[in-house]
């Protein structure tokens, strides 16, 4: 019994040593990785700072003003004017598409249908003439 | 363990035979047993003490060894913590109110030489002189062959220059990393930003320190590592600032002025949305300040911030303060008739109107402002009295330097006469005899016209501002705006009309004082202090021109109405839409008011 507990504790110590050894190396690897990532973050932040500076430099008002005047022919950019303020209902939105009448019928040769007079019908009346070009009579 | 019996039979029997007392044997055995127990207990206690002693010894040696180790080793920050502070920039960015960059850092390199390890000194000197035109070959060679073991050659290099120096292939020419400050917008807001220079320099880093403007005023904040690179947010709006500077520059050239200043301020918070002073400079390459030996006035240097440092007699723009105070004290209302019979004789002095006009004998308070009557204002000021006038001007901030966050601001104290006589009262009422900066004027107009609470000018973005102490009643504030509106609609500032924005304002034209006393006849400071829109005042704009002259007419015209006002109107026309102000169709109420007043 005694020797059994002794062996058990020795084994436990060995196990713990092995675990601690592994954890130690895992920690070192993790810290190395963190270091690497921090360096990468650092260099990316540096790049970002340079890009932000470049962006600000390229968007400086002097340059934009010059570009706007150089490209005036194509862009027609003018300074913002008070007249450009408007009510929402003053804005010319594109017209809404006409509602499509869907009767479930197939119409064929629509123009022909409008133009062809049924047999025995007289010439189109004067009012109709305004709307449609007189078509050749169906039965001359 | 065998237990010894207390009364062993053999010894008892023997003792009985010998006639001895057997109890003696028992006592003897008991004593031996107790001694035995005592010895064992002692041994155990000693053992425990030893273990404890060893334990404490080990523990203290560990603590001691650790202390020794910590004391002896180089200090190193914990690895998991160090990263964040390492990657933030050395100096924080400066951004405008919408987060656009006004100042940032760039990594660059400085060039230094270590002559002892140089291979071909004459070639290095020749090639360096070819790369940098401002360096001379002979000087470099002298430095390389001299005593020095280390010398700086260039503080900042562009990547192209660095490559060229690399290409020389000289091992004694080395690079040190540097952070430099970059102002991507060039001369924009130059006076606000100020400039930078390098402080203590080492091979691997150099301190970047502010030398003027907010860079110096907020040097501690910008360099504080605890802020973790949080940018400094200014109240400036980059777009508006650009528009103001552009229009002001054009106006300055058109009006042949030698300098100009413009301030656009939020009337309720005191935030300076745009502040320009011309001529300006490029903070990336800040010029050397003028020294005593240089010819010329420091006030003409491009480094001079006219808006903050320039203290001028601001002329008739001050008249509204006398009128507002008379209203506040109940001495008059907007329609009261005041004696305006020119000239006003005070002692041996004569107070005249502009070009010898006489607007009298009586003028309403409104018309005093509209027609800019010196005599009427002087009479108002005499009704108020020197003491109360002084207190009122002090409450508007005219007796102290402005609290704006620029390193130059505390040095720009207004010029106040030592003795505030009644004559001072008269002249100060129309803006002569005391000098203040355009920023003072902008802050005072904001305080007077925003409903009557004190406003402190600031360059920092504010989210909310507590209203300051009350200066005038809201009715007086509204009446002042209405008077100023009529100056534009039917008075001296008719060029200031901007359709839809109901500009209200007051012109001021002051003769420039000669350095040796007296005033110039043909040099003026023209100022237009305006507020818009009049129906709901939101912004104050002050435009000041130094020595403007409009030569388009048959005679040269110098008054603010011909010079500063059209520029201010154009600034308002350009910036009001940028500030998100909708133009409004004005009610025709002002005219009716004017008719009853007459």
Rg of chain A (CA only): 43 Å
Terminal residue distance of chain A: 128 Å
Number of strands of chain A: 0
Number of helices of chain A: 5
Query: What number of domains of chain A?
Result: 2
Binned, the helix content of chain A reads 55-70%
Counting helices, strands and paired strands, the structural category of chain B is: alpha+beta
H/E series of chain A: HHHHH
Percent strand of chain A equals under 5%
Topology:
The complex is a heterodimer of chains A (140) and B (598).
Chain A: H1 2-58, H2 61-70, H3 72-75, H4 110-115, H5 126-131
Chain B: H1 9-17, H2 22-72, H3 79-87, E1 94-95, E2 101-113, H4 121-131, H5 137-145, E3 151-157, H6 159-168, E4 173-182, H7 190-193, E5 195-201, E6 206-212, H8 213-217, H9 219-223, E7 232-233, H10 238-254, E8 259-266, E9 272-278, H11 319-328, E10 337-339, E11 344-346, E12 349-351, E13 362-364, H12 365-371, H13 374-384, H14 386-395, H15 422-429, H16 438-449, H17 474-490, E14 504-513, E15 519-532, E16 539-546, H18 564-578, H19 589-597
Parallel strand pairs in B: 1-7
Antiparallel strand pairs in B: 1-2, 2-3, 2-4, 5-6, 8-9, 8-16, 10-13, 11-12, 14-15, 15-16
Helix pairs in contact in B: 4-5, 4-6, 10-18, 11-13, 11-17, 12-17, 13-15
Keywords:
heterodimer; A: 140 residues; 2 domains; B: 598 residues; alpha+beta; Penicillin-binding protein 2a (Domain 2); Beta-lactamase; five-stranded mixed sheet; five-stranded antiparallel sheet; 19 helices; 38% helix; disordered C terminus
Describe the fold and architecture:
The complex is a heterodimer of chains A (140) and B (598). With 140 residues, chain A is an all-alpha fold. Helix content of chain A is 59%, strand content 0%. Chain A folds into two domains: 2-75; 83-119, no CATH class. Chain A has five helices and no strands. Mean pLDDT of chain A is 79; it is low at 126-135. With 598 residues, chain B is α+β, with helices and mostly antiparallel strands. Chain B folds into two domains: 88-233, Penicillin-binding protein 2a (Domain 2), CATH 3.90.1310; 240-284 and 295-597, DD-peptidase/beta-lactamase superfamily (Beta-lactamase). Chain B has 19 helices and 16 strands. The longest helix of chain B has 51 residues, at 22-72. Chain B is elongated. Classes of the chains: A mainly alpha (140), B alpha+beta (598). Chain A binds chain B through residues 31, 34-35, 38, 41-42, 45-46, 49-50, 52-53, 56-57, 59-62, 65, 79-85, and chain B through 79-80, 83, 86-87, 89, 100-101, 104-107, 182, 184-186, 188, 238-239, 242-243, 246, 498-501, 573-574, 576-578, 582-583.
């Amino acid at each position: 019994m005694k020797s059994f507990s002794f062996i058990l504790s020795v084994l436990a110590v060995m196990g713990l040593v092995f675990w601690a050894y592994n954890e130690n190396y895992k920690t070192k690897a993790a810290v190395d990785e963190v270091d690497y990532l921090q360096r990468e973050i650092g260099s990316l932040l540096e790049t970002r700072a340079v890009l932000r500076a470049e962006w600000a430099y390229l968007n400086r008002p002097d340059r934009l003003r010059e570009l706007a005047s150089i490209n005036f022919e194509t862009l027609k950019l003018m300074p913002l004017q008070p007249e450009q303020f408007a009510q929402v209902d003053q804005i010319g939105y594109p017209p809404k598409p006409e509602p499509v009448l869907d009767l479930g019928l197939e119409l064929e040769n629509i123009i022909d249908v409008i133009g062809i007079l049924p047999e025995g019908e007289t010439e189109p009346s004067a009012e109709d003439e305004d709307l449609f070009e007189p078509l050749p009579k169906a039965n001359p | 363990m065998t237990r010894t019996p207390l009364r062993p039979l053999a010894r008892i029997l023997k003792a009985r035979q010998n006639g001895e007392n057997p109890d003696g044997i028992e006592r003897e055995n008991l004593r031996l047993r107790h001694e035995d127990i005592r010895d064992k207990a002692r041994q155990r206690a000693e053992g425990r003490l030893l273990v404890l002693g060893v334990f404490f010894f080990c523990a203290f040696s560990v603590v001691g060894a650790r202390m020794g180790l910590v004391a002896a080793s180089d200090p190193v920050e914990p690895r998991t913590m160090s990263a964040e502070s390492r990657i933030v920039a050395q100096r924080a960015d400066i951004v405008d109110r919408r987060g656009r960059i006004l100042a940032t850092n760039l990594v660059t390199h400085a060039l230094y030489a270590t002559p002892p390890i140089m291979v071909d000194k004459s070639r290095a000197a020749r090639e360096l002189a070819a790369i940098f035109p401002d360096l001379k070959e002979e000087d470099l060679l002298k430095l390389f062959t001299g005593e020095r073991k280390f010398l700086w050659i260039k503080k900042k290099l562009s990547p192209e220059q660095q490559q060229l120096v690399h290409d020389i292939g000289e091992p004694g020419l080395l690079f040190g990393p540097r952070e430099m400050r970059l102002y991507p917008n060039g001369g924009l807001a130059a006076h606000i930003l100020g400039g930078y220079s390098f402080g203590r320099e080492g091979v691997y880093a150099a301190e970047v320190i502010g030398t003027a403007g907010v860079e110096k005023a907020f040097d501690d904040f910008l360099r504080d590592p605890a802020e973790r690179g949080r940018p400094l947010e200014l109240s400036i709006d980059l777009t508006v600032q650009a528009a103001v500077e552009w229009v002001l520059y054009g106006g300055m050239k058109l009006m042949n002025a030698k300098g100009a200043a413009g301030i656009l301020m939020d009337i309720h918070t005191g935030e300076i949305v745009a502040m320009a002073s011309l001529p300006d400079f490029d903070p990336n390459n800040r010029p050397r300040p003028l020294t005593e030996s240089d010819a010329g006035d420091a006030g003409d240097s491009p480094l001079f911030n006219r808006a903050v440092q320039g203290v001028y007699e601001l002329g008739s723009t001050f008249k509204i303060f006398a009128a507002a105070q008379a209203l506040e004290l109940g001495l008059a209302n907007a329609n009261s008739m005041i004696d305006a019979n020119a000239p006003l004789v005070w002692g041996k002095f004569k107070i005249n109107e502009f070009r010898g006009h006489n607007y009298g004998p009586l003028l309403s308070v409104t018309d005093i402002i509209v027609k800019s009557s010196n005599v009427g204002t002087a009479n108002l000021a005499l009704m108020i009295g020197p003491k109360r006038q002084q207190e009122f001007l002090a409450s508007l901030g005219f007796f102290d330097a402005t609290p704006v966050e620029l390193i130059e601001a505390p040095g720009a104290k207004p010029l106040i006469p030592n003795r505030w006589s009644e004559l001072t009262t008269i002249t100060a009422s129309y803006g002569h005899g005391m000098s203040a900066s355009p920023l003072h004027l902008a802050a005072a107009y904001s305080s007077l016209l925003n409903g009557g609470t004190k406003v402190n000018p600031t360059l920092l973005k504010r989210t909310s501002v507590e209203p300051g102490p009350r200066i005038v009643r809201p009715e007086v504030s509204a009446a002042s705006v209405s008077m100023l509106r009529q100056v534009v609609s039917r008075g001296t500032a008719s060029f200031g009309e901007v359709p839809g924005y109901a500009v209200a304002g007051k012109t001021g034209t002051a003769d420039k004082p000669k350095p040796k006393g007296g005033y110039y006849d043909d040099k003026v400071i023209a100022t237009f202090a305006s507020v818009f829109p009049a129906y709901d005042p939101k912004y104050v704009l002050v435009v000041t021109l130094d020595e403007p002259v409009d030569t388009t007419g048959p005679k040269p015209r110098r008054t603010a109405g011909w010079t500063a006002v059209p520029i201010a109107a154009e600034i308002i026309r350009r910036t009001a839409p940028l500030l998100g102000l909708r133009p409004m169709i004005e009610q025709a109420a002002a005219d009716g008011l004017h008719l009853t007043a007459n």
